[in-house]
Amino acid sequence: MSVSTEPRPVPEPGDPGVSGAPGSSGGAAGTQPPRPLVVTGGIAACAAVGSGLAVLVTLTAIGWITAPHVGIGTGLGGVLRTAALLWLVAHHVGFTVRGAGRIGMLPLGLVLLPGALLVMAGRWVVRVGSVTRLRHVGYAAVALAFPYALLAGALAVASSTAVAAPSLLQAVAASFLLALVAGGLGAARGLAPWSRLAHLLPARPRSIILGMLGAAAILGLVGSVLAAVSLAAHLPGVRAASDALGPGLGGAALLLLAQLSYVPNAIIWAVAYTLGPGFAFGAGTVVAPTGTVLGAVPAFPMLAALPSGVHPGGPAWLPVLVLAMPYVAGVFAGVVTVRIAPTPMIEAAPLWGFAAGAAAGGLAGLAAAFSGGPLGDGRLAAVGPSGFEVGLVAILEVGVTAALAAAAANWLILRRSGRRTSKSSSTPPAPDSGPGSDPGLGSRPWPGRAKTGVLTGVVDESDDADGHRIYFNPWAAAEDDQENEADWSAQDPPARPDDW
């Protein structure tokens, strides 16, 4: 189907640009009809899958040539199956290894490859499919996601071997959701800039979403710094683990790429560490600000950055500073939510602040759930943070702090606005009457009229620039009385007192 909303002009028989019309130059100048979205989405899905597979096949072939002992596979067929399995892993599809169990601890950095390709595919779909309205972006996203999920299912079946078998259901569901979200964002971005897309939301939900993103950005920044500091502090152990593997030049490059793909996982684990619950790396283990209990870990260089002492090292104030960062994120979320909100409201400000903080906590819990997973059925069956614990603690810490910060910020805004109102009310009257003078009070201007022409104290709902101008009209009652008197004088007086 095609969802082009702007009807193309119907050619007249005498138009010079129509093929077959008198005086036309043939079909070269004719207008091509829009391609149906079903065909366009299928072509874009095939292009996205093919591009991603081409990149991963190249990397897998390099690893097969430079490091044949890593067990990539035998021959070209093994290389292709391994590349297809990596493509599914990039969509966060787990797989089962014979004799080891389920592998679900997958690198989140690989999601960037299909995500970027799907964003570009979504923009191509709306351009070629003649989608001109934002409300039709959903059609373009579904037209891209459906064939993309079918291709992912076919690759899951084709890459399954007796040694490793990916989950078919997870492959179809994860690829469909990723294509729907990333392709939809790309399609929307192809029709409008980000500023226009942001203003499509009402002011109140937009303030909550921006407050949530602000808190998430603070938590992500703190997690990145903490992960980088821990990696720098344990750099000798990281080098020793790399030297013990002896990957060679090509293998070292692939090992570096593998570690970079796990960087988002490390950042999310560091966020769980700052929130308090921490994370586990095996049954009966915990890595938290209050202490660390670890067992044997795999020979992966990044894992050497995990703290190994029972008590956290460094100064005594460092764990306190780490645990205080979520509250800083909550304060930031509350202030951002109130500052962007369209109108100040002392009763509802804590509620909106808590909504922004709770949304940030839910996002942290969801990220924690996707950042970990099992590494087999043995001792490493529990790896990473608990999504439920991280989400619950983040909602309590960030959400409650955001509610208190929003209430305080809103009170300060109302107090500052009240001071401006009192100052404007005490302004001496102007010597002559103007357009802002009261008709019933001669040349005396209305007290409290702002320079913008809006009475101070009256909330201007259309003002979404700063959203905190409060205006008050002290003559509203007098104006109503004057209007009532004018309406009454225009009526005929009753003939008898009984008519009153």
Determine the oligomeric state from the structure: single chain
The N- and C-terminal alpha carbons lie at a distance of 70 Å
Order of helices and strands: HHEEHHEHHHHHHEEEHHEHH
Biggest sheet, open or closed, and with what strands and sense? 3 strands, antiparallel
The helix fraction, in percent, is 55-70%
Mean pLDDT: 79
DSSP strand content: under 5%
Low-confidence stretches: 1-30, 433-467, 496-500
Structural class: mainly alpha
Radius of gyration (CA) equals 32 Å
Total number of beta strands: 7
Number of distinct helices: 14
How would you sum up this structure, described in words?
This protein is mainly alpha-helical and 500 residues long. It contains 14 helices and seven strands. The strands form three sheets. Strands 2-1-3 form a three-stranded antiparallel sheet. Helix 2 (75-89) packs antiparallel against helix 4 (137-158), helix 7 runs antiparallel to helix 11 (317-340) and helix 11 (317-340) crosses helix 12. The termini are far apart.
List the helices and strands and how they pair.
Elements: H1 37-66, H2 75-89, E1 95-97, E2 101-103, H3 112-128, H4 137-158, E3 164-166, H5 168-191, H6 194-198, H7 203-233, H8 235-245, H9 248-261, H10 263-275, E4 280-281, E5 286-288, E6 291-293, H11 317-340, H12 349-371, E7 383-384, H13 387-425, H14 476-489
Antiparallel strand pairs: 1-2, 1-3, 4-7, 5-6
Helix pairs in contact: 1-2, 1-3, 1-4, 1-9, 2-4, 3-4, 3-5, 4-5, 7-10, 7-11, 7-12, 10-12, 11-12, 11-13, 12-13
